[in-house]
Design brief:
The protein has a 6-stranded antiparallel beta sheet with strand order 1-8-7-3-2-13, with helices on one face. A 3-stranded antiparallel beta sheet has the order 4-6-5, covered by helices on one side. Strands 9-12 form a two-stranded antiparallel sheet. The protein has about 230 residues and is an alpha+beta fold.
């Protein structure tokens, strides 16, 4: 399989790039919003995977596992110092790690979402350069088209023009009394020696209008974290 890399100029802000890749679908961003952090070196941006695996029903988890193994065998391992040379990018939900959970809390969201990505922009915030990694035989997007998109982002000094606004207040999944009862239960577990630490988390939901990429950008800029991610 013909693997190639193309060196491109440095792109400090990836907002334009993520916006311009919207038509390709299934955008992903694994990146840093804090280049000063020791681990804040890279931003990995891609879209348009050649195949997608989604799991909604945990009874099909073995089938999904076999599909992932088959996909991982498609792209060979490349000896490279780059953090990504094509391959699987995805996420596993927290619910997937609860084997005794009979009913998933969020049935509309996948337990597994994974894509086989055959190209990516790798932005090096340390060396101030960009690499486009690309598999010619299996990529469905022409390399020249990706370079044109990237060049347009470099030439444009305007904002993305995207907006994002909440149209309702955030609502927690649990009310206050339910939350306090769960805290009391955790205290009992700790005092009885059943556990020493519990990370209690709940979801918050709200209605919105606009583009989630804009929300991601705002959160990323405010957080200044070495590791940020976006999965469409």
């Amino acid at each position: 399989m013909n693997f190639s890399t193309s060196k491109l100029p440095y792109l400090e802000n990836t907002d334009q790039l993520l916006s311009k890749l919207s038509d390709l679908g299934h955008r992903v961003a694994l990146e840093s919003s804090n280049a000063e952090h020791p681990n804040g070196r890279w931003s990995i941006i891609s879209a348009s995977p050649i195949e997608i695996i989604e799991l909604y029903d945990r009874s099909n988890i073995e089938s999904a596992r076999l599909q992932l193994e088959q996909l991982s065998a498609v792209i060979p391992t490349i000896e490279s110092d780059l953090p990504f040379t094509g391959g699987l990018i995805g996420h596993l939900s927290y619910d997937l790690g609860i084997p005794r959970l009979k009913v998933d809390q969020y049935p509309s969201q996948p337990l597994i979402m994974c894509g086989l990505y055959s190209w990516a922009f790798l932005i090096d915030h340390s060396l101030k350069e960009t690499q486009l990694v690309y598999w010619s035989e299996i990529s469905t997007i022409e390399k020249s088209h990706l370079k044109d998109i990237f060049s347009h982002c470099l030439a444009s000094n305007t904002s993305t023009g995207l907006t994002f606004n909440l149209t309702s207040a955030f609502k927690p999944k649990w009310d206050e009394s339910t939350y306090k009862n769960k805290i009391d239960t955790i205290h009992d577990y700790i005092l009885n020696g059943d556990t020493y630490q519990v990370n209690l988390a709940q979801s918050f939901s709200a209605q919105y209008e606009g583009d989630p990429i804009c929300a991601y950008s705002k959160i990323k800029q405010a957080g200044k974290v070495p590791f940020a991610c976006y999965f469409e």
